[in-house]
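input
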Amino acid sequence: MIILPFHRKDDLAAAAPQVERCLAEAGVVLLPTETFYGLACNPYLEEAVSRVFDLKGRPRDMRLPVLAADWAQVDRLTVVPEGWRDCLVDLWPGALTAVLPVRRSFLSLGATVAVRIPGHELLRQLLAVTGPLTGTSANRHGDQPTIDLGGAMRSLIGDPALALDGGPSPGGHPSTLVDLTETTARVLRQGVEMWNQSRKYGV
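output
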């Protein structure tokens, strides 16, 4: 496994080509987010998606969430109901994951996708280069999410091809998960305090 620093813009310039090479070879990247460390791969490559499931020991019927760099990527991935757009504009970037109807078909997804624009600036800059990536937590299924590389490696079943070391991540609670595919939103997972800000939208 290759480990690269991921703290500053200079680190991004050095890491991005390695990440793109890894993704093109259906590899998995271990990287920091604004909450915990996550596992990223190309969601369009079946072999890559399968490796994420294997590393986590995750049941195959539990679909993978996706991280996007910005609204342009979100709109290419999903159909955002107009009733929810203003809410999401206020809450992204940040630790809120929204289940939305899919615009493009994914091998790893069905008619919907759980997506967010992460509140980790360097990660968003990386996503702008690579395109959307999976963003599931880097831990064995059933274990607690991890805030550093060491914890992730102790939990995972095997090694990802590449790791970006951004030091300890903030941790805390995982992202709030909300289903916005219907007129009335459903909270699937209550996460960080950001969720309180969305109450004014009746979510």
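quick obs: The two ends are 42 Å apart (CA to CA).
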